[in-house]
Write a structure and sequence with these properties.
Layout: E1 2-6, E2 12-17, E3 23-30, H1 44-51, H2 61-69, E4 74-79, E5 84-91, H3 95-108, H4 113-131, H5 134-146, H6 160-165, H7 168-178, E6 184-190, H8 194-205, E7 227-232, E8 238-245, H9 252-266, H10 271-279, E9 285-292, E10 297-305, H11 310-327, H12 331-348, H13 352-366, H14 372-380, H15 384-394, E11 401-406
Parallel strand pairs: 2-6, 7-11
Antiparallel strand pairs: 1-2, 3-5, 3-6, 4-5, 8-10, 8-11, 9-10
Helix pairs in contact: 3-8, 9-12, 9-15, 12-14
C-alpha cells in the first residue's frame, strides 16, 4: 500500500514497500518541463537533464556510470512537457548508494563550461536525429501546432538557436526557479526497510531549502488549434498524423478515451489496424495514441504508407470514424477493450519501476495517488453509452489537425 509524507520544506515522498522482490526503484519527479520554459530558453529542461549526468563535485561522469554498472543497476532520466524525472533501479542492498548518488547529482552537479559546450553539439545531433525520423517528426509537429499558442507546444529538445544561446548562469537560474522541494516528489517502490529509507532521505533531502523564484508559474489553459500542416521530405513513405481533442490527465473522460483508443487503433485487434493494415495491406504502420496533460489533451491517429495510397487511406479512416460516430461500438467490442485496458495496466504494475513511476507522476501532477484498486474501479465503472458520448464530443470531424510528412505537393 502506498504511503505519503510531506516534509516541512514541501518535499513530498511517496513509497510502496514490496517485500517479495529483490529490487527497489527510486525516482526524483520535478515540475520542470517545456511548460516552465520560454521561447528564449526552450530546451533548457532537457539540457539540464543531460548535465546532471556530466559529473558532480564528488565524482566524474565516468564514475557515475561505473558506480551504477558495478552493482548491475540502471540509471536514466527523461524530460516531458510537464516534468523531468531522474530514476534508478538497483538491488535492495544498494538502496543507500542510489539515494546518495541521486542527491549528489541533484545538488552538486558541476555544470562545467567545457561540458556544456560539448553537450550543445550532442543535443544538436539529437535534434537532427528527430528531423531524420519522419514518424517522430510527425508526432512533434502535431503537438507543437495543436498547442502553437501555448508553452505546451514548445519542442522538448529546444530549437538550435535557443540551445546555442544557453549559458551556465541561465541553467543555474532555471534550476533555482524550478528545482525546488515543493515542486518535487520522491517516489520509491520495492523491497526496503521504511525506517532505513526515512533515515537516508533525512540525511540527503530534509535540509533542502527553496530559494525565491523569479518566475510567475501561472499558465493559461491552452486552446487547441486545428488545420493542416505539411513538411516536405524526400523519403519513400508519407507519414500522416491526425490530432483531435483529448482528455485532461486523470479525468473521467481520460478513461473513456483509453477504451476508445483500444477500439480504434491502440491494439493489433483494433478496427483501423485490422481493416487498413491486415485486410487491405495499405499501410506499414497504423495506430492511435493519447497525450494527456494537466490542462488539456490530444488524441492522435498515425499511419505511414506509399504516397500513392494516401488518399485511399484517408478516405478509409474517415469512413471508419464516421461509421463509429453513427453506430457506436458493439457490446463485445467495448468489453474486450475494457479487459485489454485492465490487463495492460496490471502488467505495467508488475515491476517496481512501473509502480514507482505511477505514484511519482500522479502525486506530482495530480496531487494524489490513485492506487491500483482505485484505477481498476474506474475502469470497471466505465459505461459504453458514456464512452460513445465522449467519442462523439471529442473526435469531431471538423475539429482536427492533420500533419503530413514526406513527398507532399
Amino acid at each position: 500500500m502506498a504511503e505519503y509524507k510531506k516534509l516541512t520544506n514541501g518535499l513530498r515522498i511517496v513509497t510502496e514497500e514490496i517485500p517479495v522482490v529483490k529490487s527497489v526503484a527510486i525516482g526524483l519527479w520535478i515540475r520542470a518541463g517545456v511548460v516552465t520554459e520560454s521561447e528564449s530558453n526552450n530546451g533548457v529542461s532537457h539540457f539540464i537533464e543531460h548535465m546532471l549526468f556530466k559529473g558532480t563535485e564528488n565524482r566524474s561522469a565516468r564514475e557515475i556510470a561505473e558506480m551504477v554498472d558495478g552493482v548491475g543497476g540502471h540509471i536514466n532520466a527523461f524530460t516531458s512537457r510537464e516534468y523531468t524525472c531522474y530514476y534508478m533501479k538497483v538491488l535492495d542492498e544498494n538502496l543507500s548508494m542510489a539515494v546518495e548518488l541521486l542527491a549528489d547529482m541533484l545538488f552538486n552537479s558541476r555544470f562545467d563550461p567545457e561540458e556544456i559546450e560539448k553537450e550543445k553539439s550532442v543535443i544538436g545531433e539529437e535534434i537532427s536525429m528527430y528531423e531524420d525520423s519522419p514518424e517522430d517528426l510527425a508526432h512533434d509537429l502535431l503537438i507543437e501546432n495543436m498547442f502553437r499558442h501555448h508553452p505546451l507546444g514548445y519542442s522538448i529538445l529546444g530549437q538550435p538557436d535557443s540551445i546555442e544561446s544557453l549559458t551556465r548562469e541561465a541553467m543555474l537560474t532555471y534550476m533555482k526557479d524550478h528545482y525546488r522541494p515543493e515542486d518535487t516528489v520522491i517516489s520509491v517502490a520495492g523491497n526496503f526497510d521504511p525506517a532505513y529509507l526515512d533515515e537516508l532521505l533525512h540525511q540527503y533531502f530534509y535540509d533542502w531549502k527553496s530559494k525565491p523564484s523569479t518566475q510567475n508559474k501561472t499558465l493559461a489553459t491552452p486552446a487547441l488549434c486545428f488545420g493542416e500542416i505539411s513538411r516536405a521530405k524526400d523519403i519513400e513513405q508519407v507519414h500522416l498524423n491526425i490530432g483531435y481533442q483529448g482528455a485532461v490527465l486523470g479525468s473521467r473522460e481520460m478513461f473513456d478515451l483509453l477504451v476508445i483508443n483500444n477500439i480504434i487503433g491502440g491494439t493489433m485487434s483494433s478496427r483501423l489496424f485490422q481493416s487498413i493494415r491486415e485486410e487491405k495491406g495499405l499501410v506499414y504502420s497504423i495506430y492511435s495514441s493519447m497525450h494527456n496533460y494537466t490542462s488539456n489533451g490530444v488524441f492522435t491517429l498515425y499511419c505511414s504508407m506509399n504516397p500513392g495510397q494516401l488518399t485511399t487511406v484517408q478516405d478509409l479512416i474517415d469512413s471508419e470514424l464516421e461509421e463509429l460516430m453513427k453506430t457506436g461500438f458493439t457490446a463485445d467490442e467495448f468489453e474486450k477493450a475494457r479487459k485489454q485496458l485492465k490487463g495492460s495496466y496490471l502488467l505495467g504494475m508488475e515491476s517496481t519501476s512501473g509502480r514507482m513511476a505511477a505514484m511519482g507522476k500522479s502525486e506530482l501532477l495530480l496531487n494524489r495517488i490513485d492506487t491500483p484498486d482505485m484505477i481498476l474501479q474506474k475502469i470497471n465503472e466505465l459505461e459504453q453509452s458514456n464512452a460513445e458520448r465522449v467519442m462523439r464530443q471529442y473526435m469531431h470531424p471538423d475539429q482536427k489537425m492533420a500533419v503530413l510528412v514526406g513527398r507532399v505537393s
